[in-house]
Amino acid sequence: MTKLKSRIAPSLIAALVALFVPQAAVAQASFDAESGIFRLDGGDVTYAFGLGEGGVLKSIYWGPRIAASDRLSVPKLGDISSTDPASSIDAQEYPGWGGAFYTMPALKAAWPDGNRDVVLRYRSSKLEPNAVVIELADIRRPLGVTLRYSIDPASGIVGRSARITNNDRVTVRVDEAASATWSLPVGGDYRLHYLTGQWAGEWQLQSRPVTAGSTVIGSRRGTTGHEANPWFAISRGEAREDHGPVWFGALAWSGSWQIGVDQNPRGDVRIVGGYNPFDFGYRLLPGQSLDTPVFFGGYSDDGMGKASRLLHRFELDTVVPGSPKPRLRPILYNSWEATGFAVDERGQAALAEKAASLGVERFVVDDGWFGARNNDKAGLGDWTVNSRKFPRGLKPLIDRVHGLGMEFGLWVEPEMVNADSDLFRAHPDWVMHMPDRPRSEARNQMVLDLSRTDVRDLVLETMDRLLRENDIQFIKWDHNRDFSEPGSAALPPEDQQRVATEYVRNFYYILDELRRRHPKVEFESCAGGGGRVDLGVLHRADQVWPSDNTDPYDRLRIQDGFSRAYSPGLMMAWVTDSPNWANDRRTSLRYRFLSSMQGGLGIGADLNKWKAEDFAEAKRFVAAYKEIRETVQRGDLHRLISPQDGSDRSATFYVSRDRRQAVLFAFLHSGSRLSKQPAIQVRGLDPAARYRVRPIVGQPGAESPVQSGAFWMSHGIEVPMTGDFQAEGRIFEIVP
Ligand code: DGJ
Description:
binds (2R,3S,4R,5S)-2-(hydroxymethyl)piperidine-3,4,5-triol; alpha+beta; 21% helix
């Protein structure tokens, strides 16, 4: 690791580069030796931190990009009182729990002699392209922390993580390990926004003022969870969609996680996030390290809308498989709502033919194809084809699907086991459990102890064989229950609290390895709907299933919440039957399509019940979706009227990256012809360009006159609708 003094030259070079290249196109990491300040500049954002007295690493600035020539300084704080010493109110980048420190630490550790005091100080640093690596160490014991900062040149999103290394001759137990502490400028009127939910009701947006005290969201369930998602946004003042400052963050971890937002009575706001410290205890033998997940943080000067768009682009351009050019999501058909567990070769082939006639591109057989899986009581763990349902194996069906011009996809849930399975009968110790304690079941299933390498390898080899022996293009990877009794028969008592962490590491290992061995196979992350959606799994999954609730009206709210953090291009949305199983709500096929076309389109209806006119209408929507797919999946989303606002209408607008095409989706939940609906002002068009507007699917001749982008954005477009659950769609196209 290079010492600071020898690192002045790169910062000078970076400053010179910044003088001659337009600012927004340049990202850089720099260090100013005189002031002791590190800076990351990218997109419209500057992030700065620096060296305080005695080598304390202090937070300095996070906000709109400032000039390369601007000088920042490290604040010097004195004690306020005997109860508020400077050490407890300092905005530190990565505080250990030690000395006089009372708020949420980033790191807490314990040594065998009883010492639990960790005071971290700066040791050295290294600049890399668009990144800074900082070495911290405890003042007395050889415990090291490597902080890694990177900045995305396009979005200005900063990635932060920590590696904790035990350089001692004795074992150290890490009791809390955050990825990062973020500090906001002192000031009032902050509002916190986060997402909560439940099965079939994920992605509900919560907003509350940030006041003195703490708000903690997280999962103690071993997985990301339906109840909350590891994303936050903090606006200054009311969260406006199109203006005002918003800071936001998302954690790349699919296990138990925690994000705490704390404001002290003086108004300092800190956000600490990483591993959930609940039941966390990670022993590090001499020489061992613990890596935290990456916590990404960004800043928008243009409200919640831009915050989401920055995240969307960041995900598509840097996180997901295939980035910066991930493949557009194929239109899929999934059999789950049509057939449940009653899948067989003949029935699936009949559905496949009907799906293909609509223009579907991928046919997915869901649960029920393997082992003794006739209901949810048996079979999980036995990943061999059920020979009563598929007497000739899967090959004839796969060949039929391919012959129809579609890809073949298959559902699996390999982390789980039913008690009624050959796997559990042979290896009861391979499920998570604690000695002499009951093993809780949920949906009649138990969670395999993936922290064990033998179980990890079994799952990997079983899935690898499935993919080697069958010509499969897509795997829907499900996970239908959370952890309970998270103990492992393979670990000693003192390492039991690392089971949940090792589990997720091994889950990632399996997916990474499967992708390496089968680079053409795509994966969907599903966990009883949206229970495992985060930037960690999205590094390995091409798409996610956001909810088991397929009611198209409920979905508007679910999709709106999802879009706060994740790109619509990663979110699958199926057209299913009406009335919907979730709430008996009746909606038209048109409404269902327009609701689902706002993400990756899927069809999950029982096509055997459809009439000729349903097929004819669906074909038109599928064809139209292919015309707008790139704009919806890769473009910029503007939430014009959010269904979270409680209005009778909602509307979204997707603008292609080159602004040549845009798509409006508008929904009326309940409306009368006695009241007039105001025109909808769209956003994001080129004001000087001229756009023609036509219905997504509709009567020829229903086009609107050609008008400028400025006109559509300020005058707006009339979208008349009357009645309950009405939907309209419009395509805007630039006129050369
Ligand atoms: C839960 C998923 O979210 C559903 O889509 C379906 O795959 C079922 N599991 C199958 O058991």
